[in-house]
Amino acid sequence: MESAFFRVLGIVLLLLLTPSCSKEKGEVKGGPGGQPVPVVTALVQQKNVPLIIHAMGNAESCLAVAVKSRVDGEILRAAILDGQEVQKGDLLFDLDDRPFQYRLKQLKANLDRDLALLENARAKEKRQDVLSKQNFASEETLVSLVTARQAAEATVAADRAALADGELQLAFTHILAPITGMVGRILIHPGNLIKANDANPLVSINQMDPMCIRFTVAESHLHAIRENHAKAPLTLELFPNRETSQPLPATLLSLDNVVDRQTGTLSLKAEAANANRRLWPGQFVTITLKLAERPAALVIPAQAVQTGVNGPFVYVVKDDNVVEARPVVLEQEGKEDTVITSGLTVGEVVVTVGQWRLKPGAKVEIIKAKQP
User: Fold this and answer.
1) Are residues 276 and 319 in the same domain?
2) What gap in Å lies between CA 73 and CA 192, rounded to an integer?
3) What is the pLDDT of residues 285-317, one digit of tens each?
4) What confidence category does residue 202 fall into, taking pLDDT thresholds of 50, 70 and 90?
5) Higher local confidence (pLDDT), 138 or 10
């Protein structure tokens, strides 16, 4: 009895310590319990896609003016409010013009006096000329009178120039808007004395329409941008503050003449119509710059691309429904499609949904395949 008991106990221990041989050697594992992992797939396609550069930038006023006075005086009145939109030539500030009015009257009086002296000098010259022709006066006296007349004419010309300058100084007491745009906060209020071209401006004006956009791209795009921009002005799409609504169209204006050596980027400037004021100076914008059409590009859905320790890769489904992790080189990433340069061929099947449950060599079940 004891020997039979120990014989049965040995068989039980042997069964417990022996590895399970329920799976055949070399069989590929799938999900839990060895079941295939359900995934969604898509085909690698070849089609013409636009070559697009994605960038980020800031809106800025194409024209910005710090308004300063051109004469000394006291501010009597501000004809604007903070944040008001003005047109070119609109009145902004009135200065005390009384000192300029008094000076202008003095200059006019000086001109009248010197005009009278000029008339007298011309009359004397005319009489002396008649006497000289009749040999009743010396030539030397005539020359002296001609010189006096010329001096009087020069004095009158100087008076007229001074009078014009006085009128100009008087006009400067009415400070007008040099551009069309929106004023900021008034920095110096009525009652203050100001000096001509002071360091502190009275107010600033920013042009609001059109609006300029400053952004940077990697220097690797320099050749493609210059080549396509020389053919025709490049177009952009702007998304203010990451908006998902209709993008704003813009046109590329210029490229900077130097590459930033510290960041390896090139600065660009674009212009966009801003009648609805969707853009604001200093506002953050997302930019897509379309360069040209890329023919016969390899395209896969953007969600198929995964990121590993060695870079981007995709899961490729082979004929036996076993997946393989394939590294790829990306050329252009978009919201829906991604353009690749190497790693895949046309017609191969890549996994777009369900990658988190996969590992190389896993068996999958395609539950829904996107049609090209």
Assistant:
1) no
2) 9
3) 999 898 877 788 889 998 999 998 888 999 999
4) very high
5) 138
- Give domain status of residue 13, yes or no: no
**Does 12 reside within a domain?**
no
Answering whether pTM is above 0.90, one says no
Q: What is the CATH number of the domain that holds 303?
A: 2.40.420.20
What's the domain count of the chain? 4
Task: Show which of 148, 172, 196 is a domain's final residue.
Answer: 172
327 lies in which domain range?
32-52+296-370
Q: In this structure, are 111 and 167 located in the same domain? A: yes
